[in-house]
User: Fold these one by one.
Assistant:
Number 1:
Amino acid sequence: MNKKRFNPSSSMVFPGRYGRRSLLALAAAVCIGATAGFRCGKKPTPPAAPATSGVPHGPAKSLRQQIEKVTGGHTRIVWARDYGEGKDTFANGTKLALMGLDTRMASAERVLSGTRGNFSRPLLSPDGATVVCSRRTATGDPKVPQWQSEILAVPWEGGPLQSVRSGYAVDVWQEPQTGRTWVYAFTTLRDGISSNPEGYRMVRFRLSEPDKEEVIWEKGLMSGDNIQLNRAGTAASGLIPWPNAGTFDFASGRFIRYRNGCWPSLAPDDSGVVWVFDGTHENLRLFLPGVEGDWRVPMGKLESLKGKAAYHPRWSNHPRVVCFTGPHPVKVSQGSGRVSVMLARFNAGLTAFEESVSLRNPAAEPDCYPDVWVAGGGEVHLDLASVGSKRVRELAAAAPAKAVTAWDAAAESLCFVWQRANTNNAITGEKRESSVTPHRHARFGPRFDMLTQGGYFVLDDASAKSIRKALTSGLWAMEIAITPLAEGSATPQVIFRAGPDLEVQQSLHDFIIRIAGKDWQLGAGLSAGQTTHLAFGRSSTRDGPPTVWLNGQSQEARPVDTGLRAPLAPADTTEVQFGARLEGAAAWTGRLETIAFHASAPDPSRVAAHAAWWQQQLTGSTPPARTVVRARLEEASPRATPESIGTYRRSWTSALYKKSALISGPDPGATFGVAHWTILDGQPVTGPPGKPGEERELILEPMAGHPEMDSEHGSEEILPDGVPLFLDTGQPGA
């Protein structure tokens, strides 16, 4: 590959006959066109028609005219095209071409660099004059590749790629006060993954001084898809890593998690609106800053997608113009042929798309990773008063609710914290994130809690190590909210285990806490579906009973009478996990949330406050309505395979049923859709949907009551419009 050291002072950066000042003047001159029909932050004066415009007047017939009809004005688009086997959705290979399209140039799409190679995440500079991308190179074992990455740049008019420095570029941002342009990048990439790039350290630098970097974030693993800054540069969308989607708050140093999902994107103005892509790859979930609630914008209904999936969604520099690729099949890793770059325009409220266009890829090779620049887009602002669904706007306008005690684990001596899957589970003192990984059939519930039904959750290595150390070195305390989903048995089942030094078990209606091999019984009155707040800690006296609180009330633990209660056999393994022992032994079925483990004695005042908070949560919560129905299968979507879903570990398949008999609960209607789990923990799940004509009993809850499913891989493609969708809540594989 022809490569030169990048020199931003070179005239190549501001190509052709324009030069930098002329190009900026051109961008300003077309602000009226770029913002036609949009709310603009500044009222521009009417300019003379740009002499460089090659777009004819009249109805939008040409592709360039159709693009400008969507974007409002002069537009540039850059992307990568796969000339390999057509399966390189994440731009890992070496048979890619760097492509571009300019609506004010007579040619249609063109190759920006004459050689083929790796072009990962091409990005347009804020002035649209330069393309920055990265070249990823894999060495070693193809199954566990080692990645090197180099940042490259090329002027918009094309030419030889120029080397900037090592690293992986994730965004290019312009400082509003000075006009200086910064490249945001990972310094190194994590080895061992074969899809989306991930890194531990994000820096920024100027193209003119690439060796002078500023550290922006180094608080754990981040995904490169999709980091995008707001206009002020105070925040960026991101994953820490996938599927934990949210925004980096650079001022406070906090990551604000919105939900599990992929391809988050932050509006390019300063409105703070953020989206998270759901697991079907057909819907955007949008959020207003500081508002509890979201709204859905379906993409699958766009004519250009024809009900198929989209990939690579990204906001342009204009807050109402977005880009993506499609149509993709469910099994994206099998290749999908004519996948094209697409553009769409939001309506004023960002509740639907009102216009879209496909670049109609003339070749059979698929496109990936588009980025879009619209002249004048950097001057446009969203009107937050009109953004969002009616319910979300009402929530935003409502007076703040009366303050209540929040669940907030003390930062001091914190070893592990996990409120829910959609919260910030950060150990701030150590600059790390606590996490849990579901295994076998374990998954997340509708409160983003841990659902251990048929599986268990394993803690991250750093948290497990910290807990084991606390158990052997001094005082410690644990807090956890526990909801059994089945009646307990006389044989104890393991709710939590931290090696041989600590186990929390359920036996019939009681808790058993095993500390250093000694069992202590706690009468808890446990019953299926009822949540209990448990807090306990090591005794201040050697071999004494633990100090325990149930729902905020101090309790006395007594030794287990082995004549009445047969204990679990000892186990010497050192795993730290929820819901079972190693490999699923002594499995327990239930939900777990609001968990903290401290290397210090329990704080009674905090225990009481958290128990009171929990009582308020339970009083105001309503579980999804449950329906039991007998129904006949009419049609089912094709099952995905573990290989076809990329980095996802779980997938569901939609099926269309006709009701035979309503057994209990609300009537789902004569015809309805059901989402069945078909892959869990990366392995196929046996069971429904089965073959058309089969009849079965189903335990269903409305999919709308399960927001955790939005981030899971799945497909609704066979379901007709208007057919309600339910989740099969029975035991997967049964």
Number 2:
Amino acid sequence: MRTAGLYWRFLFVELVKLIALSAAVVVVVGAFGLVIKPLAEGRLAPLDALRFMLYASVPMLQYALPFAAGFAATLVYHRAGQDNEVTACFAGGVSHRALLGPALVIGLVMAGLMFVLTDQAMPRLLRRMQELITADAARMVASAVDKGEPLVIDSRRSVYARAFARPESAPPPPAIDHFVLSGVLAVETDAAGAVTKEAAAELAYVWLYRGAGGGADAGEDVTTVVMKLRNTSGGITGRGQFELEQAPYVFRVPETLTDDPKYLTWAEMDAAYDHPERMSPVEQRRWRLVLRLAERQSAAKVREDLMRGGVMTLTDAAGRPVVIRAAGLAASAGRVEGSGDGFELAAGPDGVIEVRAMLEDGRTRTHRAERAWLSQSATPAPGGGGMLGASGNASASQLVLRMENVSTTGPGLTAEAVGGGAADQTPGVLKDYSIAGLTPTPDPLPTLAGLSVERLLAEARGYAVQDQPLVDARRALDRRTEALRREIRAKQHERIAAALACIVTILCGAVMALRLREALPLPVYLWSFLPSLLGIFAISGGQSVAQAQGQWGVPMVYAGVVGLGVWTFVQYRVLARR
């Protein structure tokens, strides 16, 4: 018994040393491979690259540890077999099962360590890695401009720039950074990739803000980008050229680390399962449905006001009244931009829609348009502190009134000066005008924004099925919520299976080394490495199946572990019979 204990200690020490050495080699090589691309693209500074490699080392252990354990077990037990140490132990009453004890103990320890790493350390370090790449947004923009690459806002909007410059002054609080782009071209495409709208500007002033977005409880870090264009012109496909007013262009960029449950711990995944709006993909669709519902509820109030008196009153961003005189309101799918499809205002008996807006000095300016549309902006006004509050949470609707063929009269203006004169009515040239930041009274958006996913879906089901845009938004949110929940459960089972894989891979390496002790080390390792590789691949593939199929795919996650365990048991039975 004492001899068995001494040999156990020898095997244990040798296994630990070889596992540590093998894992270190694999981790360093893998971490170096991960850092090359962001370093070459200018998204990481040299010192940040070293930190990135350090952070990447621990997540790489998820794949390095099982194979390092199998490799170490193969070498240690194969050498013991070739040196006849195993034969001596067996002659002294030490069974093969007892010899496998150190491998089993280390496998159990590694399984516990792997679960702690995958559940606690790896998600946090993956977030640190992502933060290193995305922390300096201005540096990423500068790198893209220098290479002539576009700044991709989303799947349909991109911005090109000729040059990047930093002002000497510090950014105005609460902005975290600011810069200037020159020679700017903004492009918007449809679902097929065809350009639908483009705008060119001499300069673009950009401010970056950081804060939580997507609702008070969303817990999502976003970068809010405010871009103000100067001296702009552009065109809309099929409608000709247009002139743009100098207005801020606001959009939010969610951090990509919130898009994948692999960045979350087990407890955080459980929280995201119960509150899926905390995840960016769900929150984006939830917000789209919020905007559509707010647009329809606002339109119902506007329609009621117009039918009662032919006049409705909205409030602009400064709290001043904007009075609109029209004959009615009707849905106008596809005619306007924004989150929804918008509603077209019907012209009055005189053939125009009249809009009266109050200026800062209290005087009134009147716009007369042949056509006008009212829609909900895709970027509502955040709460607290004006347009960009400290929290970044939406507290008010932001309707956009777009007018076509506009003549404007008021203090210091003539109709000819702003596009109402006959000289300006040239073919193919549109004189459009927009008023953004309008808020209805009462505003339905704050109430809708505070609803959970389930309550919001229930609210949307109360609308007619003929409202196809609303139905599409509801179905998109429903599908993405269910997909997220399946993904969360699949990731949790994957972490358990990855921990169990450490046990079977080290046992497989030890058993194959004892069974094939007369062969060379490389063929022996291949007989344990290839089944282990298939088992690891089966775990990843099973996770994909479970993510797509839900609970019916969960057994597939563990199929690789079970299959490798069966292979190891069969080889052990062959060894035991000898």
